[in-house]
From TrEMBL:
InterPro entries: DUF6364. It comes from Persicobacter diffluens. The lineage of its organism: Bacteria, Pseudomonadati, Bacteroidota, Cytophagia, Cytophagales. This is Antitoxin.
Length: 83
């Protein structure tokens, strides 16, 4: 694949920060931008997957049913605690 040139207009502060970041990473702004664009395009094309940790935290199922169960469990807890 051949490289093409692209001209961008960016805020000068953003450019300065990007140059410093690229230098710390020992790469170029062009390569940073290319990698970023490739990443977001791959994420868009890939099926949405949720990590096991996120699944565990969020849980699966019907949100309304989960809220109803929570309310029911909380009421049972209060009844047991206070009679």
């Amino acid at each position: 694949m051949t490289d093409k040139q692209l001209t961008l207009k960016l805020n000068s502060t953003t450019i300065d920060k990007a140059k410093a970041y690229a230098q710390r990473q020992q790469t170029s702004i062009s390569k940073l931008l290319e990698n970023y664009l490739e990443t977001i395009m791959q994420e868009e094309e890939a099926p949405e997957e949720v990590s096991p940790l996120v699944s565990q935290i969020v849980g699966k199922g019907n949100k309304v049913a989960d809220e109803v169960d929570f309310k029911k469990d909380y009421r049972a807890h209060l009844d047991q605690k206070y009679g």
